[in-house]
Write a structure and sequence with these properties.
CATH architecture of the largest domain: Sandwich
Number of domains: 2
Distance between the termini: 30 Å
Order of helices and strands: HEHEHHEEEEEEEHHH
Number of strands: 9
Radius of gyration: 19 Å
Shape: globular
Helix content: 10-25%
CATH topology of the largest domain: Jelly Rolls
Number of helices: 7
CATH class of the largest domain: Mainly Beta
Strand order of the largest sheet: 1-7-4-9-3-2
Largest sheet: 6 strands, antiparallel
Structural class: alpha+beta
Length: 276
């Protein structure tokens, strides 16, 4: 599968900036999608995961959280190069994994309330991007089976949506192996599933390096597991320093606590100019 060119990456970043969202078609290899699908099925069965019973998560939607704690397959998702380039173009360098979960919308599920992913963060709107989320299509996303509903350009609004109101939306229709990217302030929600098949997606969510992560990566994932992550993934889950300052421990890089040897910190006090 051909990698995205620099011009394609720039165009997707522009679309997310202007419209609030973009679909990157057929960007994930079939082999990885099948591997994720099988790993998810095994995990849901092993942990006996059942749907919740609330309006937001859905009564017929199965969600598996904290996926990085559950195997090598899921470690490949946050560092997929093409998608990460687009997200870094939205959030800048030093971003973090905010959460990694699966969302399987079952037959008969109702539409999720329209919301923005940053509306619990008490800062004025509009604001620079602080959250950039992605949805990997593990199955085809259609208007009938619950494709994510979006309201373009609402990331530019000065307020968040009312989850108890109805809004005109468009479906993010995409084929299996495609990825939806959207900025966290965009108004959106999962669609209703009016078919007899389950719509499965991976919610791979990122945040700027100065924002608290949705899932507590440092406590939710065993240190021994993190030690086995690729270096880039260790940085993405929080064993890094943002902008030469945020996240240090006694002026040391937190990655030092994963290894016995010293890890360079490049702190702002040392006139460092970039995050580790």
């Amino acid at each position: 599968m051909a990698k995205l060119t620099d011009s394609q990456v720039k165009e997707y970043i522009r679309l997310v900036s202007d419209e609030g969202w973009a679909v990157i078609p057929d960007v994930i290899e079939d082999e990885l999608i099948a591997e994720i699908e099988n790993s998810l099925a095994d995990l849901v069965e092993r942990l006996n995961i059942k749907p919740s019973d609330n309006l937001f998560e859905g009564a017929k939607t199965t969600r598996a959280y904290n996926l990085l704690a559950y195997g090598k397959t899921f470690e490949k998702i946050p560092i997929q190069d093409d998608i990460l380039k687009v997200v870094e173009g939205v959030l800048g360098n030093g971003l973090l994994v905010s959460s990694l979960s699966s969302i399987a919308i079952g037959p008969g599920e109702k539409a999720q309330p329209i919301h923005s992913d940053d509306q619990l963060i008490p800062i004025p709107k509009p604001h620079p991007p602080i959250i950039c989320n992605t949805m990997w299509a593990i199955s085809d996303f259609t208007e009938e089976n619950g494709a994510t509903r979006l309201i373009p350009k609402t990331h530019l609004e000065d307020h968040s949506p009312d989850p108890f109101k109805s809004y005109e939306t468009i479906p993010a229709v995409m084929d299996r192996g495609s990825v939806l990217v959207w900025v966290g302030s965009l108004w959106h929600g999962g669609g209703a599933n009016q078919t007899n098949e389950t719509r499965t997606g991976i919610a791979m969510n990122y945040c700027a390096g100065y924002i608290r992560q949705q899932e507590n990566q440092q406590l939710g994932i065993p240190l021994e597991t993190i030690k086995g992550f690729p270096k880039k993934l260790q940085q993405l889950v929080g064993f890094s320093i943002y902008n030469g300052l945020v996240g240090h421990i006694e002026k040391k890089n937190p990655a030092k606590f994963l290894f016995s040897e010293d890890v360079e910190a490049n702190l702002i006090w040392d006139y460092g100019s970039s995050a580790n």
